Amino acid sequence: MKRPCACAPRPTRNGRAAAGFTLVELLVVLAILTLLAGLVGPRVLGQLGGAKSKTAAVQIADLDKALELYKLDVGRFPSTEEGLQALVQKPGTVAGGWNGPYLKGGLPNDPWGKPYRYQLTGGAVEIVSLGADGAPGGDGENADVRNVK
Fold first, then answer.
1. Residue 106: its pLDDT value, please?
2. HSE on the CB side for 104, CA within 13 Å?
3. What is the pLDDT of residue 136?
């Protein structure tokens, strides 16, 4: 008697070979995966946007602290013209007291890849990220993030 190959499909009771998943089973699994992606995807992306805004707020707080150290050493905040670059490179207008760089790794961009805006107005420092859209104002991920209360 000839022995069947171990790799050949085995016949079932009705004589047909078991071939694997049916098309209907595959379509049901695909539909379930699509529903899950539709429900979970927007929530995950929403958290990602919130994380970038929180990252910007933390970076702005770090810049604010570095500016305070700069002020202790130099006696004043950098002018608007000197900008945040004064934290990593000594400005030509500073005669002495500069003990920088005040930031490790250089001046960071915001989480959307744009430089932070810096302005000194009447002794008040303002550091701003314009959000994902790069335009003033906005809601959600497009909202401005700033250090000014």
1. 86
2. 0
3. 86
What local confidence, expressed as pLDDT, does residue 21 receive? 81
Over its C-alpha atoms, the chain yields an Rg (Å, rounded) of 30
Structure tokens at 57: 């707020």
Which residue's structure tokens are 């008040």?
124
- Does the pTM surpass 0.85? The reply is no
Establish how many alpha carbons lie within 13 A of residue 144's alpha carbon, considering only the half-sphere containing its beta carbon: 13
Which distant-in-sequence residues (6+ apart) come within 8 Å of 50 by Cβ? 141
Q: Is 130 exposed, middle or buried (0-12, 13-18, 19+ CB in 10 A)?
A: buried
Neighbouring C-beta atoms of residue 34, cutoff 10 Å: 10
Q: Which residues of the chain are modeled with pLDDT < 50?
A: none
Asked if residue 135 lies in contact with residue 92, where contact means CB atoms within 8 angstroms, the answer is no
Q: Is 92 helix (H, G, I), strand (E, B) or coil?
A: coil
Q: What is the pLDDT of residues 60-78, one digit of tens each?
A: 999 999 999 999 988 889 9
Q: How much is the pLDDT for 11?
A: 60
HEC readout, 19-53? CCCCHHHHHHHHHHHHHHHHHHHHHHHHHHHHHHH
In the three-class reduction of DSSP (H, G, I as helix; E, B as strand; rest coil), residue 10 is classed as coil
